[in-house]
Amino acid sequence: MSQTLSNVTLQAALAEARERFVAANPASLAAHVEAVSVMPGGNTRTVLFHPPFPLTMVSGQGCRLRDADGHGYVDLLGEYTAGLFGHSNRVIRAAIDTALDRGWNMGGQGPMEARLARVICDRFPSIDLMRFTNSGTEANLLAVSTAVAHTKRRGVLVFEGGYHGGVLSFAGGGIPINVPHRWVVGQYNDADAARALISAHADDLAAILVEPMLGGGGCIVADAAFLQALRDGAADVGAVLIFDEVMTSRMSAGGQQARLGITPDMTTLGKYIGGGMSFGAFGGRRGIMEIYDPRRPDAVSHAGTFNNNVLTMAAGHAGMTELFTPGAADALFARGEALRSRLNATSRDAGANLQWTGLGSLMTAHFLRGDIRRPADAARGDAGLRELFFLDMLDRGFYLARRGMLALSLEIGGAECDAFVDAVQDFLESRSSLLQAIS
Ligand code: PMP
After folding, report:
1. What is the 165 CA–ligand 1 centroid distance (Å)?
2. Does the CA dihedral 419-421-426-431 come out positive or negative?
3. 269-281: per-residue pLDDT in tens?
């Protein structure tokens, strides 16, 4: 098939898949129409939007979701990594019920925050002292501001395609609502270029902020050599190296930093660590974090009404101690590695221009051949095939991110992995002519 002909065929297949989606989801459409009248595009979380309209989810149990029209799905999205414990987990539920029985909004310190902080400090090599926030965005905002206050400098090195929060987004170099730090944007996985940028900005560099794997940027894993170059460079010029482990903290009990043996000065956390409640945290070396010690005459204040909210503290402590134990973290990592390698083998055997990048339980489908080391590589992927894959997977009962990302929860077992590999195989067979023609 010629490239033009196959593109026409792809557009026809997409139009048909979208029509099928619209016909199958009248209740989600009605919810969308209602939402559009009060929120721009009916949306309060950009990532959830997709044309023609997103599904409205109404309930979840274990690894399964149900939408407003009554369809059931295996949830492979895992709430973009915050849903590590699956849906309606009994241990988390019991912890929240106990907290609710005791009361909330008490305007005081609670018994759980130091206990959750203890678990986190014990696990993450870089964290001597830490503080809670309400989201990963806030954690990164605080970490960068902490580095600026600590170093009395202004420059912050980040990387193209990095995502650190709603106002810290570096896809395409940055977005108009980013907070106005003095950003220097480097290329991910280019250690030489990063070294050059660090020396060029040596006198003004407060922080280097990096994800050990670009999560939203396509599950592109950082080379150890790249992260080590940042580690060494930060130490040379006196900048604060911050690992954004909001997504990668799940790679082991102590995150990706513990797996690699590379220790940043500060770490930011978020997502599942609050047991699925709103969560964020930033922490690091004692000498940096101590500025927040209110007993000091020169203490810096960091406020936040909900930083120690009792639901997050209770759910987080139960989740981290009873469910996401170090052994569970290793088992989840291994399950994800095994699934990704099966998906890659299946895609390769079919001769399709499809590959799966990622680490452990996080992975993304890319419709292209060749190495993917930075966002520009991933951008070569075929957007039409990606959308078709998403819609076809919904049709087969699998819920994942439209951009092709999967985040396995602890509830995803062998049967769900087998069923998904079969569904991908089925997709590859039913769409084989398109997949081979478009490269
Ligand atoms: N950092 C990374 C690496 C993330 O993936 C995200 C969320 N996707 C954030 C920060 C922001 O976290 P939140 O959505 O809780 O603000």
Report:
1. 5
2. positive
3. 999 999 999 999 9
